[in-house]
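lol ok so funny story. i was supposed to be doing the assay writeup but got distracted and ended up predicting the structure for this chain instead. priorities right. anyway since i did it might as well share w the group, maybe its usefull for someone
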Amino acid sequence: MTPDRVRHMSDAESAQRIEELIELIDALIDVIAAENTALAIGLPASQSRQTEVKTRLAEYFELWVGEVSARRVRLPANNAELQAKFTARIECLRRSMDENLIRLRAAIEASQRRIETVMSAIREQMAGASPYSAAGRIVQRSTSSGTNIRA
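and the output, tada:
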């Protein structure tokens, strides 16, 4: 879209572009809500099926933010209903993203705890199986030998 085209965009065209942006925001809200639900039931963050879709939608949203920041898209001043709808959807997106951030942090911390537990178990197993002591000397392990003598 050229700058001349932007300056002459009618309020109806601007409203249509904002409606498209609201649809994108709604899609983002839906994906984030689905991810929040998955994270709430304990799914690790890395296994979230929504990550790819969320990333793609976030890239589109970033492009829209650039368009709005550059004033190539504007919210018609005389359309209070559209302004209220847009503001409400942005607020809903913000709340969803805040919840998502909290849940992602919790999922990452849980994953880190699981990894540390596994690593600790591996270290303990390796230490118990090592023929060397902490000082580097060979450890004499006691062995039991049974006899099975039949007369």
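Residues 61 and 92 are 15 Å apart (CA to CA). Confidence is low (pLDDT under 50) at residues 1-6.
back to the writeup now i swear
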